[in-house]
Structure formats: structure tokens, C-alpha cells
């Protein structure tokens, strides 16, 4: 009954928007992507509701939430207001093609993206709502892994994409977002007020991103910064990143650096949303800090260098190799650790919208990074072992 009501609500929203847009003579686009992959992995883990490991071993099955990309559908539109102004909106919901349910399962958000805004032909774009943060946008605009697979529609490809775990959840609630482009330079800024009584700082997030993205030039550059404040204690969680992309003929090379710095008592950020339990599950804080944030635990500093190369064997056939190298220091020795991760992937475009792909990845963990979910937004389970190997084949279609 719950799933039926959700589908009915989605159809009602779609019907209302399309009808309203016709009256206002707006342009409205229904878009989306369905991606399913079959994955085999070693040292997989199943977890109970409280995060306790229940069983381990090799596993094969359809990947949850999608394969090379999370599956999603969305509606976006714009209305010409005259004088160089346009009204904008976007709604986007993610789902699990393996069972048709919302993704992440149990998520409180039906729409992963929900924003409304205004665009000026001279002053840029301002939007409000739940949106991608500027670090996520900056990295995926220039030097994120496997950008070749996104095509013109979607750059947020997240198959085995460890750098995504460094991006403060990639999306933020209650965000005020501004973007502008001057020639080949793109500037992004965001602010998410915490909404805490008596404090403008607690639970807030602020970020900046600057990118050089010429359409024809071989080099792209980018850098971003994001600062998040804890809901209760004003503790900070900072993200710093910079990187570049070099394209020469059919070969593209990318390289980036991304760093997280965390105050010990940063344990809660509802705008993420990240509850203390979520942060403990991600290996960011210690489980005991969910009860007492002042106890020492979690990581202090985490750094990643990532790089990769892709080559178009033909216009339709692409092969790529990627590597991620992470080092972490903690507030206790239990959170000191490192991770080395590698990937080979190949994709064949049957058309502009349909892609077949195959992938293999290998990860080795030491110390406090074991089981820290340093694998990307979906497809692979975090392991409690010191190594893991995965292989996947799949297909995706965009519309």
C-alpha cells in the first residue's frame, strides 16, 4: 500500500506540473536513467538494522540502486519571464531497479533533488532547496572518475567512486545556491542555514567552487571548498579539493586531491542528512560518540589522491583505468589507516543513450579504514576484511 501511494503521489505531481506548464507556456522535460548491473564480490558483508555484521563471504547479485549510475527519474522546467529572466524548477527521485523501491531504501527523502530558482542572462542563477553541494559539482565538472560514461546528460556517475565519500554526502537540504559563468570560468557558491534557535552557525554549511572549463581547450582546472558545522557544538567538518583534466585526441587523463578535516566533536549534521548513527556507520566517528560526542574518536584528517586515464578505442568503445590512494589519521589509534583501490572498466555505446559496460575493482585496506565504506555511493558493500575484489557487468539507458 505504501509503494502504491508513493507511485500515485509521483504521478499526481507529474500531471499537475505538466498541466500547469502548459497554461504558463513553460518548457518541461521528463528525464531519467535506468541502470542495472550484476555484481560479484569477495568478502561481502550483510548488516543488521543496527549496523552489526550478520554474515560474510562471496556474493553475486543485482547491485542496489543501480550499477554504473544510480537509477533516477526527474522533471525540470523553465519559464521565460521576460527581460532576460527565467523561472526554474527541478525534482528528481532515485530508485532501485532491482525491486522498484525508492533509493536509498528507507530514505526520508522521496525527491533527492528538489529546487526552485531564477536565472538571469547577465547575473547568473539562484536556486533554493535540496541540491548537490558545490564540491560534488566542482569535482564532477572537471576531474571526477569515469566522466566519459555520463555522456551529455549525467556526469554524476558513481560506480565504485571512492572520492564521493569525501564530499559531505554530495547533497544538502535547505540550500541557497548561486552559479555564474564568465567565458570559460564557472563560479559556484552555496549557503545552507542551520535553522537552529539562537545560533546562525550551528548546523550550517557554506561552500565555494571555481572551475576553468573551456569547450575546446585540452585542459580543465577546478578547486572547491566546503565547511559544515555540527548541529549542536559548532564543530567543523571541512572539505578541500583541487584537480585537473587533460584531453588529447581520444585519451583523457584526470588527477585530483581531496581532503577532509574534522573536529573531534563533529557528530551530527541533519541538513546532510547525517545522524550520529549514519556518521558512525560511515566510519567518520566512533560508535561511542553517538552517546557522548566529547569522547575521542573518529578521524582527524583524511587525504586522497586519485587519478585515471580513459581511451576511446573507437567512438563507441571506451576503456579506462583508475586508482585511489587514501591516508587517514584519527583521534585514536583505531582510526589511523590507509586504502589503495584500483579499477579497470570498459563501456560500449550501442547508441547515445544505451551503454553496455564491464568493470573489475580491487581494494586493500589497513587500520581504521577497514569497513569504512570507502567505495562510493552504491553497488558495493563495505567490507570488514583487509581486501575486496569486485566484478560487474551491466547496462544503462537514459531518457
Automatic annotation (TrEMBL):
GO MF annotations, alphabetized: porin activity
Listed Pfam families: Porin_4
Boundaries of every Porin domain copy: 10-367
Chief place of localization: membrane
Signal peptide feature range: 1-24
InterPro entries for this protein: Gram-neg_bact_OMP, Gram_neg_porin_domain, Porin_dom_sf
Keywords tagged on the record: Cell outer membrane, Ion transport, Membrane, Porin, Signal, Transmembrane, Transmembrane beta strand, Transport
Topology term for the membrane: Multi-pass membrane protein
Domain of life (superkingdom): Bacteria
Presence of the UniProt keyword Ion transport in the record: yes
GO cellular component, one term: cell outer membrane
GO biological process: monoatomic ion transport
Cellular compartment(s): Cell outer membrane
Complexes and interactors: Homotrimer.
Name of the protein this chain belongs to: Porin
Gene source species: Ralstonia mojiangensis
Amino acid at each position: 500500500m505504501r509503494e502504491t501511494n508513493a507511485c500515485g503521489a509521483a504521478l499526481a505531481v507529474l500531471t499537475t506540473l505538466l498541466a500547469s506548464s502548459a497554461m504558463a507556456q513553460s518548457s518541461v522535460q521528463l528525464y531519467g536513467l535506468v541502470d542495472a548491473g550484476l555484481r560479484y564480490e569477495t568478502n561481502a558483508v550483510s548488516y543488521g538494522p543496527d549496523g552489526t555484521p550478520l554474515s560474510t563471504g562471496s556474493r553475486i547479485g543485482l547491485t542496489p540502486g543501480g550499477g554504473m549510475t544510480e537509477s533516477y527519474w526527474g522533471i525540470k522546467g523553465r519559464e521565460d519571464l521576460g527581460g532576460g529572466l527565467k523561472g526554474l524548477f527541478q525534482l528528481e527521485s532515485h530508485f532501485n531497479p532491482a525491486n522498484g523501491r525508492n533509493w536509498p531504501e528507507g530514505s526520508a527523502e522521496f525527491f533527492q533533488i528538489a529546487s526552485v530558482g531564477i536565472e538571469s542572462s547577465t547575473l547568473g542563477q539562484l536556486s533554493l532547496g535540496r541540491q548537490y553541494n558545490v564540491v560534488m559539482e566542482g569535482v564532477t565538472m572537471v576531474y571526477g572518475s569515469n566522466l566519459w560514461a555520463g555522456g551529455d546528460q549525467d556526469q554524476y556517475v558513481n560506480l565504485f567512486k571512492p572520492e564521493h565519500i569525501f564530499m559531505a554526502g554530495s547533497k544538502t537540504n535547505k540550500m541557497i545556491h548561486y552559479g555564474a559563468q564568465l567565458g570559460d570560468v564557472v563560479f559556484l557558491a552555496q549557503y545552507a542555514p542551520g535553522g537552529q534557535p539562537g545560533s546562525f552557525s550551528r548546523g550550517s554549511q557554506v561552500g565555494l567552487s571555481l572551475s576553468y572549463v573551456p569547450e575546446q581547450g585540452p585542459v580543465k582546472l577546478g578547486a572547491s571548498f566546503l565547511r559544515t558545522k555540527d548541529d549542536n557544538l559548532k564543530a567543523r567538518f571541512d572539505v578541500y579539493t583541487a584537480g585537473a583534466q587533460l584531453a588529447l585526441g581520444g585519451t583523457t587523463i584526470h588527477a585530483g586531491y581531496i581532503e577532509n578535516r574534522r573536529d573531534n566533536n563533529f557528530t551530527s549534521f541533519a541538513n546532510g542528512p547525517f545522524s550520529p548513527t549514519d556518521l558512525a556507520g560511515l566510519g567518520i566517528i566512533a560508535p561511542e560518540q553517538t552517546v557522548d560526542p566529547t569522547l575521542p574518536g573518529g578521524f582527524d584528517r583524511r587525504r586522497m589522491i586519485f587519478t585515471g586515464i580513459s581511451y576511446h578505442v573507437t567512438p563507441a568503445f571506451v576503456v579506462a583505468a583508475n586508482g585511489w590512494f587514501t591516508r587517514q589519521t584519527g583521534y585514536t589509534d583505531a582510526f589511523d589507516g590507509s586504502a589503495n583501490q584500483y579499477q579497470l572498466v570498459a563501456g560500449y555505446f550501442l547508441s547515445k543513450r544505451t551503454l553496455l559496460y564491464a568493470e573489475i575493482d580491487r581494494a586493500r585496506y589497513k587500520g581504521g579504514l577497514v569497513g569504512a565504506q570507502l567505495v562510493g555511493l552504491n553497488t558495493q558493500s563495505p567490507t570488514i576484511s583487509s581486501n575486496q575484489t569486485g566484478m560487474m557487468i551491466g547496462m544503462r539507458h537514459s531518457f
